[in-house]
Design goal:
With 90 residues, this protein is mainly α. It is built from 2 helices and no strands. The chain is elongated and about 60 Å long. InterPro entries: Bac_export_3 (IPR002191).
Length: 90
């Protein structure tokens, strides 16, 4: 039987892994958005696609680069934590 403390520990680990895997993409989106916003403020160009396209390109590039890290982190969590719980090892 799964105890309440073990359940909360697994949920805490899962949330932490979600934060760790999303930080690279969110950071790049934030920095790109700030840079484009600063550029728009300095040049008085108010084009909506100017904010969307560079941010989308930066996010796709960072996702492609960090995909291995994200996959390895999720696979490690699944095999070391969830599979033993499902199999009844803990």
């Amino acid at each position: 039987m799964l105890s309440e403390g073990l359940f909360y520990d697994v949920v805490r680990q899962a949330l932490w892994i979600a934060v760790i895997t999303s930080v690279p993409i969110l950071t790049v989106a934030l920095v790109t958005g700030l840079a484009v916003g600063l550029f728009q403020a300095l040049t008085s160009i108010q084009e909506m696609t100017l904010t969307f396209v560079p941010k989308l390109v930066a996010i796709v590039i960072v996702f492609w680069v960090s995909m291995g890290f994200m996959t390895q982190t999720l696979v490690t969590f699944f095999t070391s934590t969830l599979v033993p719980l499902i199999a009844g090892g803990r």
